[in-house]
Specification:
The chain has four helices and eight strands; from the N terminus they run βαβββαβαβββα. It has about 130 residues and is an alpha/beta fold. A hairpin with a 2-residue loop joins strand 2 and strand 3.
């Protein structure tokens, strides 16, 4: 089994796509006005409009309703990303903080309220976990 992507459903594909292009620094591939993908090493972030929900089953997903998942991106330098994104993000959930498991993390929400974590492994143990 290969973990391929995370799909986020939104009522504004353009807004969310632009946000994640700014966060990742990667261009999105747009297949239709209702769907975009940002392909990164390891996985793809897919962004679908509410119109695509009916293809999976009416009412099966709801935009801006997530409070359980965190979209995570490993970055080279969390503090540099914090400086780069300070004007883009505005309010942060948590500024760069070293977590007990050895990652330095930066938390914020996307325009639909989904929690986003940028992290850099900084302890020897965390670096070793990422290299497996």
């Amino acid at each position: 089994m290969i973990f391929a992507s995370v799909r986020v459903i939104t009522s504004d594909v353009d807004r969310l796509t632009e946000f994640y292009q700014q966060v990742t620094g990667q261009p999105a591939q747009r297949y239709t006005g209702d769907f975009a993908e940002i392909v990164l090493p390891g996985a793809t972030l897919a962004i679908g409009s509410t119109a695509t929900v009916k293809l999976f089953g009416e009412g099966s997903a709801e935009p801006a309703a997530n409070r359980t998942a965190i979209i995570e991106f490993r970055v080279d330098d969390v503090d540099a990303e914090f400086a780069r994104l300070r004007d883009v993000i505005g309010a942060f959930v948590q500024e760069p903080t070293t977590m007990p498991w050895g990652n330095r993390s930066l938390l914020f929400r996307d325009p639909d309220g989904t929690l986003v974590n940028l992290f850099t492994p900084v302890s020897a143990e965390a670096i070793d976990r990422q290299q497996r």
